[in-house]
């Protein structure tokens, strides 16, 4: 806020106070200006403390237009020709609490006083003050400042009351109101949705019956005024105690500054403080021992959503859940705490501390009485665990036993149509062979010779399949050799898949499989050699390599998109790769990308667009939610991974930088946060030249965020992606909130799935999830 104006008074006919200007009280104890709550663009006119204590100054103590925010910075405050205060904006005048101010017969002016009261006064022609026309203290929001009144004026019928904000971030009227008893007794009441929720009891000897100690502040002097004209509670403090205030918060608790006051704290179902009225709940809660515990994370199932107007508070939502015997969890619909969604069954929920995730409240019931439920659950858990361990070892044993003779023979038969029979160094025996079969058969001797007997010096890296070596054929051709390791998590199935698939696919952005070797225990794949290794080296490990500039990155993005488009649409088979990630993008001499590793790819029928699989394979961080959780695989599974890859290429950061650390926010979450705050270019790799084209970078991030949207049907197809990346004149849609969820095996287990980790490395985690279906 730029304090462009330092006056405490606004005069009729004077320039309006603009959105960016402030009024300050004479001793600068309060200020009045427009503001937006956190994570919101809505503009409200509010009064704030202006004290040395920062935390006090951030919360508005009064709001003029709580239910009618302005959506841009065109708002201004003025006194119109009738002497009335009003808020105008580019679209005219907005309704506000000022509408209750009367018409002044002569000039008027409004002053922000040092007690926080904003007072509209009639001014005599000689400049002296006449009568008070209107004051903000008569129309409090949720905050009770010293000098304010809570009660009723019998002559005018005016009631002084406070109404809570709907959520901490949204000032609109919430569901709790505190005010004087309309029946005229000397007590205060809190209403929730119009029903009495708490009563103070009668005022006697300086305090209310149900609130013997009204305040934690010894210096606050409360008085209850009762005469034929008025009945109200008010209080005063010493001048030095400016900052003292009471407030009704979003869950109906009276707070003093940051702490709960010493009265009016009611629990969900029982009564904590005297004066709390018992709320009526269905029979299923007859024993009253239920409560809710919150967890922050991501939910995959849609619940029942109330109230599209978002005028429900979290407390209202809790009540909806408690009224429904089958409700198991509830949460606000929006991140700013409004709206309501409830779930009646166990949900797929992943705990994650990301601020972009929702806080979900889960039902908890009395443990003591339900001991037998816990017993059964624990026993089932132990049995399930034992069974899983047994399965794991049986499966492992089968794998380690490896590929025996019979399997080798079967494999050779199955691949007969694909592989060209052996020649000494893998060359086709004749032209006919070359034409029909694109993958050649290499002898183990030729492979051993090419790699200098699998010398450690020739090792290029290690993937899920096993070690990868560089080799050279006698003709001088460089090759890369992947040797299926015996204890690899992947096995014959992936080996066969890779050969059968890649033999039928040909595209400049797919790595070429030259041949294979199947002999005894050895299963080896031979590829064209990619001198620039895989993209993860260039992108994340730049200390050892030259940094990729933007043009090279864009070329890689384009190439990968083209390769995927080919797989999805133009190849002879309709293929979903299922494991697209930086380490599966290889770079040739010219840094052109080639998609590799088709071991996990899935072939779709021509008319098939979606499949359900029991075998979920891939890499967390790149896996779409519907695939990781429900095993639903489609082209959109790859689109999601492509989106993650895009964000990684732009930022030079991994989606999950390490699996061993707690990470509050992954890259997708971070990108989304920047997008929401309009700072999306901050995602750009800081090592990139500052002259890199910002429009193109912004475009890539936009496409990336579209690809990682939560619902597959919201994600673009690869045809759309290529179009959006190449046509820079096309206006891109704004992305919806993305899915950023699974973080590690431990959390995945929460989804009650049995996970067997098949690869264990520090940087990424490939896994196979078996589900009983
Ligand atoms: P992968 O099993 O495909 O994950 O490969 C493991 C690592 O070996 C990769 O990250 C690459 O660095 C390297 N690599 C794999 N294939 C090739 C290739 N054709 N040319 C060069 N390096 C490769």
Automatic annotation (TrEMBL):
Keywords: ATP-binding, Cell membrane, Disulfide bond, Glycoprotein, Kinase, Lectin, Membrane, Nucleotide-binding, Receptor, Serine/threonine-protein kinase, Signal, Transferase, Transmembrane, Transmembrane helix. Its EC number is 2.7.11.1. PROSITE patterns: BULB_LECTIN, PAN, PROTEIN_KINASE_DOM, PROTEIN_KINASE_ST. It is a single-pass type I membrane protein. It is found in: Cell membrane. SUPFAM superfamilies: alpha-D-mannose-specific plant lectins, Protein kinase-like (PK-like). It catalyses: L-seryl-[protein] + ATP = O-phospho-L-seryl-[protein] + ADP + H(+); L-threonyl-[protein] + ATP = O-phospho-L-threonyl-[protein] + ADP + H(+). Residues 8-133 form the Bulb-type lectin domain. The keyword Protease does not apply. Its main location: membrane. One of its GO terms (cellular component) is plasma membrane. The chain crosses the membrane at residues 371-394. CDD domains: B_lectin, STKc_IRAK. It comes from the Eukaryota. Belongs to the protein kinase superfamily. Ser/Thr protein kinase family. This is Receptor-like serine/threonine-protein kinase. The lineage of its organism: Eukaryota, Viridiplantae, Streptophyta, Embryophyta, Tracheophyta.
């Amino acid at each position: 806020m730029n304090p462009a104006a330092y006056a405490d008074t606004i005069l009729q006919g004077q320039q309006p106070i603009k959105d960016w200007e402030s009024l300050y009280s004479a001793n600068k104890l309060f200020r009045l200006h427009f503001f937006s709550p956190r994570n919101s663009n809505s503009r409200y006119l509010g009064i704030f403390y202006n004290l040395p204590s920062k935390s006090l100054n951030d919360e508005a103590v009064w709001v003029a237009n709580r239910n009618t925010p302005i959506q841009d910075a065109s708002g201004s405050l003025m006194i119109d020709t009738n002497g009335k205060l009003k808020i105008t904006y580019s679209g005219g005048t907005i309704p506000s609490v000022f509408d209750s101010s009367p018409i002044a017969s002569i000039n008027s002016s409004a002053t922000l006083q040092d007690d926080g009261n904003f007072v509209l006064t009639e001014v005599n022609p000689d400049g002296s003050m006449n009568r008070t026309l209107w004051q903000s203290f008569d129309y409090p929001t949720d905050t009770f400042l010293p000098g304010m009144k809570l009660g009723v004026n019998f002559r005018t019928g005016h009631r002084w009351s406070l109404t809570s904000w709907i959520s901490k971030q949204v000032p609109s009227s919430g569901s709790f109101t505190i005010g004087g008893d309309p029946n005229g007794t000397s007590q205060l009441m809190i209403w929730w949705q119009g029903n009495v929720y708490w009563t103070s009891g009668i005022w006697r000897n300086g305090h209310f019956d149900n609130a013997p100690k009204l305040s934690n502040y010894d210096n606050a002097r409360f008085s209850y005024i009762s005469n034929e004209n008025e009945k109200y509670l008010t209080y005063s403090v010493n001048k030095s105690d400016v900052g003292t205030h009471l407030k009704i918060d979003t869950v109906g608790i009276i707070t003093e500054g940051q702490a709960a006051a010493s009265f009016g704290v009611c629990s969900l179902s029982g009564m904590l403080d005297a004066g709390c009225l018992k709320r009526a709940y269905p029979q299923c809660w007859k024993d009253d021992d239920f409560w809710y515990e919150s967890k922050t994370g991501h939910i995959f199932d849609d619940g029942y959503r109330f109230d599209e107007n978002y005028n429900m508070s979290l407390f209202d939502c809790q009540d909806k859940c408690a009224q429904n015997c089958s409700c198991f969890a509830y949460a606000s619909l929006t991140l700013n705490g409004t709206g309501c969604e409830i779930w009646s069954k166990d949900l797929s929920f992943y705990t994650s501390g990301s601020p972009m995730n929702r806080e979900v409240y889960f039902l908890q019931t009395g443990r003591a009485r339900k001991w037998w439920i816990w017993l059964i659950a624990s026993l089932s858990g132990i049995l399930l665990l034992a069974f899983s361990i047994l399965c794991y070892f049986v499966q492992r044993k089968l794998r380690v036993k490896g590929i025996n003779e019979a399997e080798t023979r079967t494999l050779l038969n199955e691949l007969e149509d694909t592989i060209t029979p052996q020649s000494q160094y893998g060359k086709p025996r004749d032209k006919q062979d070359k034409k029909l079969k694109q993958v050649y058969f290499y002898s183990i001797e030729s492979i051993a010779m090419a790699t200098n007997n699998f010398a450690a010096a020739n090792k290029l890296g290690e993937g899920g399949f096993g070690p990868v070596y560089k080799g050279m054929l006698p003709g001088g051709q460089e090759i890369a050799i992947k040797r299926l390791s015996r204890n690899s998590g992947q096995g014959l199935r992936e080996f066969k898949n890779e050969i059968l698939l890649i033999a039928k696919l040909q595209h400049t952005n797919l790595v070429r499989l030259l041949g294979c070797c199947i002999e005894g225990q050895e299963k080896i794949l031979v590829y064209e050699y990619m001198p620039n290794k895989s993209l993860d080296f260039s992108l994340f490990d730049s200390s050892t390599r030259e940094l990729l500039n933007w043009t090279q990155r864009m070329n890689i993005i384009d190439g990968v998109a083209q390769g995927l488009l080919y797989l999805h649409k133009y190849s002879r088979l309709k293929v979903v790769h299922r494991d697209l990630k930086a380490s599966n993008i290889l770079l040739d001499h010219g840094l052109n990308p080639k998609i590799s590793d088709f071991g996990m790819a899935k072939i779709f029928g021509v008319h098939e667009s979606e499949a359900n699989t029991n075998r979920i394979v891939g890499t967390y961080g790149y896996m779409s939610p519907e695939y990781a959780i429900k095993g639903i695989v489609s082209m959109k599974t790859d689109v999601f991974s492509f989106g993650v890859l895009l964000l990684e290429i732009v930022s030079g950061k991994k989606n999950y930088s390490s699996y061993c650390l707690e990470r509050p926010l992954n890259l997708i979450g971070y990108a989304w946060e920047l997008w929401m705050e309009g700072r999306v270019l901050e995602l750009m790799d800081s090592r990139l030249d500052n002259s890199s084209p910002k429009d193109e970078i912004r475009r890539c991030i936009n496409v990336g965020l579209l690809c990682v949207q939560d619902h597959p049907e919201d994600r673009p197809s690869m045809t759309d992606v290529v179009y959006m990346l190449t046509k820079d004149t096309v206006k891109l849609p704004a992305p919806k909130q993305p899915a950023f969820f699974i973080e590690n095996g431990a959390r995945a287990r929460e989804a009650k799935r049995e996970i067997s980790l098949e690869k264990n490395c520090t940087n990424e985690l490939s896994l196979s999830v078996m589900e009983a279906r």
